[in-house]
Design goal:
Strand content: 15-25%
Largest sheet: 5 strands, mixed
Shape: globular
Radius of gyration: 15 Å
Order of helices and strands: EHEHEHEEHHEHE
Amino acid sequence: MKLFFARHGQTSSNANTVSSQPIIGNDEPLNELGIQQADDLAEQLRNERFDIIISSPFQRATQTAEIINRYHSLVIDIDDTWREIQTNGYVDIATWNDLFDFGKNASIENAEPLIDFFKRIYEALDELAVKHGDKTVLIVSHGGVQHALYAYANKLPLSGNIRISPMNNCEYRVYEFDR
């Protein structure tokens, strides 16, 4: 399976909270720059042939996927599996970094445990590879999901700080997975 992974475009919270990371509790749309970023990404991906486009259910991801899809005219699969790690609102950047460090075992009240988050993403990737092994898939999702995807693709142990390959808004990466 050829997997394109794109992070959503910028939101007002991305722009206005330099020391914070927007998480699940804040489902907001793209801002003006985010729309432009998504338009630019759509142009970059215009000539790619996708069999499937999957998006996180959050507005920032679905809007980005819809803009990219202008050139592909596919039905976008909105899938809750690809949502960001649940922290119930904003966390400062230091807490965000600690959340992705298995050695620190950081936790937030009522938040999704990091191991559960990684398990969710790993299981979804396994399922995609089996179900769509011969296809080209685009997933539009979030920065935290990218950390899990990067660890999965590079067979990294789930130990230490796993936040080693962050993405900018509307950056994309390509992965190849065998069935």
